[in-house]
Specification:
The complex is a heterodimer of chains A (355) and B (307). With 355 residues, chain A is of the alpha/beta class. Chain A contains 13 helices and nine strands. Chain A has two domains: 268 residues, Spore Coat Polysaccharide Biosynthesis Protein SpsA, Chain A, CATH 3.90.550.10; 35 residues. Chain B folds into two domains: 201 residues, Spore Coat Polysaccharide Biosynthesis Protein SpsA, Chain A (Alpha-Beta Complex), CATH 3.90.550.60; 65 residues, no CATH class. The chains are: A alpha/beta (355), B alpha/beta (307).
């Protein structure tokens, strides 16, 4: 336990200098103003479509889903990362095939080497939109994806925007016409919360990359970057850091489908369990080493979690006690009686149902 | 029934008509759909799959779909891509099948593609559809995204129990040979299932072509549920009964009626009333006997579903 004198000393050491809080507020306000400044000719959204050229049929689906957007105020940068030489021409040809259906010609950029973050940083540097969003080549967006982001950006400028995403099981399969295709295996499932829970995101990423749009100037004017030392979890890292800095506005619509591959390579199979654990550790260590600003509502959530923790500790103490163990036979007997009663009710119900 | 003996085996490339029936659709969405159709058809010409193509829009709305300027600009756009655009104002709502039947009467192309106007076809879709239309294949349908239809198809051949009218390709001779869409029975929904089964009974296979894409603008709620419109609910409920009757499945009609018996939702009440009205008036469709395994009624679906 910390002695009173030590505690006072600790407080004194961590006392912010006079005026620090107001200085921080001023800087955040200035940052927010910059993030909200929009060049007149800028599109609302820049879409960074990341591909390794290994899933050409899903890439075509992804391009078509962009072409089908109801809100046309966006541009596309396709980033080919570590493409095999043969794939460069193929991917370029696919992208060119959709140019006439997009609001403006998509840019095609090649990036070599580095982790999955390197193509992101290359893309952020080329982004011109008010917001920027990352869309991987094997996922899908609904026609209202841009439209819904756009609507919320008007009421929550300068914040991250987060929409609901469904997940869908999918497996690699050769199509009857010979292409390396795939087959969906399940109806889309809303497995993530429809709102952004900052604390819940500390345990794992609950927001697929394309469900979040970032103010573009965060990257181009404030040196916010994807962490190139991360092999994976680069999306989680950006979303967490961005959310602590700017807050997150919820988009009240489901606008995308995140595909979970049952067969065929994905980022989950290409990287080892150890790589995933190390990336997670790095993401959390970075957060743990920084001063963070919590989003509104998080104090209540923290208190609730702490209360739950208290109940759990109490329950564990109770179930470990001698009296709990000594009365086990009574609980077993009560369960047995309840079971017999339930079986009896079920039989009566069947007999009286009619046909 | 004998198979209608028309194929794509000749040396001449087939001509294609792409048909859409419009009812109060947003002009901008229809324009984007037409532009995408033009690109896909032009790519098929370039790939040596079709000779000529036209886009035929049938307007079931009471108002014109486009302004004169929009219509002229769109016609020029289609023409510059190598096709022609025809817009027909029906002056009445003919429904899905009725509209397509009317448009088909005015054309003479070898092939007809039926396309939903709220869809965007992929640049490679027409090529993929034509490629899959083998001599023994009656109709080919496209894969819809972002919500793929869950009906089962053979992994090797693509063979499937019915094809979706959201986007499918059929030979004109086959379409006319089986009598087109049964628009007397079906106004919206299930007319594609009925056409599919009659084409199968004529001896053809039905094929799903996953490489042929259609972005069909359907949405989900935040809980990932699909909420059908009142129109979809009503006509689907009605079509279920009519389809079961038409294929001689009185057991299905009875079980659906039993299911609907205590259901007081408006679309169910109206669907039952309409069926009873037709029954009393003797205007139910003529029963197709010996449909055998072609007509599949599987827990409310018309095929085995993957999920």
């Amino acid at each position: 336990m910390i002695q009173a004198s030590s505690f006072a000393k600790l407080l004194a050491e961590h006392q912010p200098p006079a005026g620090a809080a107001s200085e921080l507020a001023t800087q955040l306000e200035a940052m927010n103003r910059t993030l909200q400044t929009v060049e007149p000719a800028a599109p609302f959204l820049t879409v960074l479509l990341r591909t390794q050229g290994q899933r050409l049929e899903p890439l075509r689906d992804a391009m078509l889903s962009l072409a089908a957007q109801t809100d046309r105020d966006f541009n596309v940068v396709v980033i080919g990362h570590d493409l095999e030489p043969d794939a460069v021409g193929v991917v370029r040809s696919i992208v060119d095939g959709y140019q006439a259906l997009l609001p403006s010609p998509a840019e095609f950029v090649l990036v070599e080497g580095g982790t999955r973050s390197r193509p992101l940083n290359a893309g952020f540097a080329r982004s011109t939109g008010e917001y920027v969003c990352v869309f991987d080549d094997d996922d899908l967006v609904f026609a209202n994806w841009v439209e819904e982001f756009h609507a919320i950006a008007r009421t929550h400028p300068g914040q991250l925007l987060r929409a609901q995403t469904a997940t869908q099981q999918i497996t690699a399969e050769t199509w009857p016409s010979g292409e390396d295709g795939f087959r969906t295996l399940s109806w889309p499932l809303a497995e993530y919360a429809p709102y952004f829970d900052q604390l819940d995101h500390l345990s794992a990423n609950r927001s697929p990359f394309m469900s979040v749009a970032f103010p573009r100037k965060l990257f181009t004017d404030f040196a916010f970057q994807a962490d190139e030392l991360l092999d994976v979890c680069e999306d989680w890292d950006l979303i967490l850091r961005g959310s602590f800095l700017l807050g997150v506005a919820d988009v009240p619509a489901l606008t995308a489908i995140y595909h979970r591959w049952q067969a065929g390579a994905s980022s989950y199979t290409r990287h080892s369990e150890a790589t995933w654990r190390e990336s997670e550790r790095r993401v959390l260590a970075k957060l743990d080493s920084a001063a963070l600003i919590l989003a509104p509502g998080q104090i209540g959530r923290i208190r609730s979690l702490l209360a739950d923790q208290g109940y759990r500790a109490e329950f564990e103490r109770m179930t470990a006690s001698k009296s709990w163990k000594a009365t086990a036979y009574l609980r077993a007997a009560r369960q047995r009686i309840a079971h017999i009663a339930a079986v009896g009710r079920s039989r009566v119900s069947r007999l009286t149902r009619g046909r | 029934m004998n198979r209608v003996n028309i194929g794509l085996g000749g040396t001449a490339l087939p001509a294609l008509a792409l048909q859409s029936v419009i009812y109060k659709n947003e002009p901008d969405a229809v324009i984007r759909s037409v532009v995408a159709l033009s690109l896909s058809a032009a790519n098929a010409v370039a790939a040596g799959k079709i000779s000529t193509w036209m886009i035929s829009l049938g307007n079931s709305s009471s108002d014109p779909v486009f302004s004169d300027e929009q219509r002229e600009a769109l016609a020029r756009s289609v023409q510059s891509a190598g096709g022609t655009l025809h817009v027909t104002d029906f002056a009445e709502n003919l429904g899905h099948g009725g509209g397509h039947n009317r448009l088909a009467q005015t054309g003479d192309s070898d092939l007809i593609a039926f396309v939903n106007p709220d869809g965007l076809v992929d640049p490679g879709t027409v090529v993929a559809l034509v490629n899959a239309l083998g001599a023994d294949v009656g109709i080919v349908d496209a894969r819809q995204i972002p919500l793929e239809h869950p009906k089962e198809y053979d992994r090797l051949t693509g063979e499937t129990a019915w094809v979706s009218g959201a986007l499918c390709l059929i030979r004109r001779s086959v379409f006319l040979g089986v009598g087109g869409f049964d628009s007397d029975t079906f106004f919206l929904y299930c007319d594609d299932v009925d056409l599919s089964w009659r084409v199968r009974l004529a001896g053809y296979r039905l094929v799903h072509a996953p490489a042929a894409r259609l972005f069909h603008d359907k949405r989900l709620t935040v809980t990932a549920d699909y909420e059908p419109s009142p129109v979809e609910l009503y006509y689907s409920a009605e079509a279920t009964l009519l389809l079961a009757h038409k294929y001689g499945r009185t057991d299905v009609v009875d079980s659906v009626m039993e299911l609907y018996r205590d259901d007081r939702r408006d679309h169910i009440v109206r669907a039952v009333a309409e069926y009873r009205k037709r029954e009393a008036a003797g205007t139910l469709p003529t029963v197709i006997a010996h449909a055998g395994t072609v007509a599949v009624f599987n827990s409310g679906f018309y095929a085995e579903h993957r999920y």
